[in-house]
Structure formats: structure tokens, C-alpha cells
Amino acid sequence: MAPPPPPRDLHCDLLTYLAKTPARTPEDRAARCSIPQLKKGKVGFQVMAVFTEDSKQAYHEARAQARAFRSLMSTHQKEIALFPFHEEGHLEGGGKISAVAALENAAPLLREGEGRENLEENLDSLEKELGPLFYISLTWNGENRFGGGAFAEGIGLKEDGQELLRLMSQRGIAADISHASDALASDIFSFIEKEKLTLPVIASHSNTRLVHNQARNLPDELIKEVIRGKGLIGLNFVRHFIDDNRFEKIREHALHILNLGGEEALSFGADFFAAEDLPPERYRLHASWYFDDFDTAESMPGALEAITEGFSADLKKRIAHSNVQAFITRHMHGKR
């Protein structure tokens, strides 16, 4: 029997963990997505998010995480390497983890009171530190200068967001709608069509709202739009986006995306982070943030088997690996 295909993951928060304090290291199990955990989980490709909330500190927090990313690439060269977008081929990096950064919330790109004319310069500066970005989420959970976040119901795309989408299209950076309001996500698709942008749209770490009714999960109409644009949808392992009782419910999310035509879109966006770092009032919102045995990157092979039991070998490979590879080849080679 052939070994299971190595999983590729579209979202983890190791950089947020590392930037909290200089005493932390990429080997710390508390991160849930440490280098040893990623290796044990056979994760060969990992998107690492630069995450900030909408605050006056967003710019400085993003720069701290960028420094953590550069340090990681420098100090762990035997284990991890920057993914070479300019090279055609596979995601494997000679046995190393291939890593690429992404921006979860565009707030650091324009500080309070800063003119829109600085947007391109700020994006240049961030990519100079991080390398080419895989995707940018315009918002987090609230409203910012670019649009409405996942819990900012009814707030769509703003003028700053339009300008950012134009820049992303020029650079081959995907738009991530995992933290967008439904109104913002719909506006993004409409704006892309109106301006004829070559801008792929993904949901890097979102499940389906029909299976589990959470604002951060995707309604069917947005799932269909991502699929229509040949984007990606990464299954999220956080408990309250799956089900209140059992991890295996994630299979229903996968089946629902497949039933909507998502054979070439479905992938992983596990969203592992150190929940214990959350402010106490947010940490206590949920009795447990992850299911036992599926709470670190080590669990990826087992999760793949739980989700794809009975699937064809080709479909398993697509979900674990090939869909991400095809997306990069289709949308990003030649622009990086």
C-alpha cells in the first residue's frame, strides 16, 4: 500500500507565537505548529501568517513577526526553506519544509492617518522583509480601512481595499476571504470581474456554514465563487468551526465542498496557534479550542485519513497536496 500523500497547509500562526517574546523558539510544542511538530506531521509546505488585530500596534507587530520569519529561515536552514515561486516544479524542498508568508489582516499596510499613496511603498517594504506573499486577507474580524471583517456584518469593500486589490493582482498575491464579511467577499468577486483583474481568491482557513453555522464559515454562494475562480478552500481544525462534539464532523465539511464541485479547491488550512496566548476573556469563550488528538501539526496524517476514508487515491492526493501545487502553478508562477 502506498504511503499517504504528505499534507500541505495554508495557515498556521507560528510567527505570532515567536514574536511574543524573545525567549520562545521554533521548537516549542506550545505553538502547536513548531518545526518538530510540522516534521512529525510530514507537512512539506506551510503558509505562515503574519497576524495582527486592528490596533495602533499592527504595524509594529507585523514587523516583529517579519523578523521572526527571517530568523526562522536563517537559523533552521537544515529543516526549512523559503518556497521558490520562480521555479516550476513540486512543493518539496529536498526534504525540507517549504515555507511562505501571508498577511492575515492588511491593517499594517496603512497606519491610522496615513495616506493611501503610501500603500504600495508599505507593501514593498513588507515583501522585502518576508519574500513574496502567498495571500493577503484585507481584514480580520472587525472593520478597517479596507473593508468589513468576519463579524462586521454588511460592511463591504472600501476604496483603500480596491487599491490594494489592484496591487495584489499586479504581484500575483491571492486574496483571502477567510476573515471577510459576506459583503466584503461578494464585493471582492464583483470588483475583480469589473476591473478584469487576474487575482485568485482563496479561503485559507474556513469550513462550511451549512454544516456548522459560524460567521467565519463560508456560505454556499461564496464556496461556489471560490471554486469558479479555481481558488482554494483550506479546512480549519479549530473546534468551534467544525462541531461542538467530534472532530470527524470535518469530513462533512469536506463532502459538502466536494458536492459543490470543489475537487480542485479542497485543501488544508488547519489554523494551529497557541490559544493560551489569547486574552483571558477570549480564551474562556470555548472550553477547548481543538479536539484531542487533532490539536497540533503532528495530527495532519491522521486527519487526512479521517477526512478522506474511502476516497480514491487521486482525490486524497488532490486534497493533501496537488490542489495547492496546481493553484501555485496556475496563478503565481511568472509573477514572482
From TrEMBL:
Gene3D superfamilies: Metal-dependent hydrolases. It comes from Estrella lausannensis. It holds the Pfam family Peptidase_M19. PANTHER family: DIPEPTIDASE, MICROSOMAL DIPEPTIDASE. GO terms for molecular function: metallodipeptidase activity. SUPFAM superfamilies: Metallo-dependent hydrolases (SSF51556). Transmembrane segments: none annotated. Coiled coil: none annotated. It comes from the Bacteria. This is Dipeptidase. The gene is dpp. GO terms for biological process: proteolysis. InterPro entries: Metal_Hydrolase (IPR032466), Pept_M19 (IPR008257).
